[in-house]
């Protein structure tokens, strides 16, 4: 077994983060795993640390962090030439404010010992990534990959608020409650023009979620290994229907809501999304200038999954 390179991303605002690392360290040692570890100073350092590990020959990179840190890691790995990228394995020990991609596979924050055992077994699955291609404010052509989802409109704002409230209330479900209540008091809608498969959508829309995986409940049937993206377009429900929407979202049945329109596709073209926030794997990104396109890249990351 090759030596692991581990990046530890302490959860901001968490209580006694060193104690959590000590528990992870004990699980690693108990399983006889050889590793070197580095600690990220802030959210912008993950990319640099992943590059450092790759340049020093590490083939197994384990991220102790959440969705946004994983996003940084996969974007860094995707910058590596394909012939080298094929030898790199990525694993996760969930430790972020939002860990939805880890939860998709069955990893849980409190089950560190079981997670380490699964990672040691080394079952790898090649997974897909979503990719947004856009023009930035400097008129430069850019792209960025995502593991879980890209959100446009109110869902992006809700997820950003959820990241903040998660640190205070300490529960994924409870953090969603104040975040979702914002949907009642800020019943925003945005003028959008989308092309999905043969459908041209030009109307006011509350939110769009483009999921490579479960998309925080908005694309519950999406999986990152079928070469497709699931898309949920949310029109503007009445206040009474919002409460129904909350129930369906938390119970995994959001697609049953009358104002949620699901699609499955390989490409989404967004010609217009006026003043709408855009989130990528739970983190707000700078709004693209003009039209942008979202596609899927198939089987491009070696991800370690549970047995």
Record keyword descriptors for this entry:
six-stranded antiparallel beta sheet; 9 helices; alpha+beta; 307 residues; ten-stranded mixed beta sheet
Low-confidence stretches: 166-176
The chain-level structural class is: alpha+beta
Beta-strand percentage? 25-35%
Mean pLDDT: 86
List the helices and strands in order: EHEHEHHEHHEEEHHEEEEHEEEEE
**CA-CA gap between termini:** 17 Å
* Cα shape: elongated
What is the helical fraction, as a range of percent? 25-40%
Radius of gyration over alpha carbons? 19 Å
- Strand segment tally: 16
Largest sheet: 10 strands, mixed
Task: Report the total helices.
Answer: 9
Describe the secondary-structure layout.
Blueprint: E1 4-8, H1 17-30, E2 35-39, H2 46-55, E3 60-65, H3 67-77, H4 82-85, E4 89-94, H5 100-105, H6 112-121, E5 124-135, E6 141-146, E7 149-153, H7 154-169, H8 172-185, E8 190-196, E9 199-205, E10 207-211, E11 229-234, H9 239-250, E12 260-265, E13 267-273, E14 278-280, E15 283-285, E16 292-304
Parallel strand pairs: 1-2, 1-3, 3-4, 4-16
Antiparallel strand pairs: 5-6, 5-16, 7-10, 7-14, 8-9, 8-13, 10-11, 11-12, 13-16, 14-15
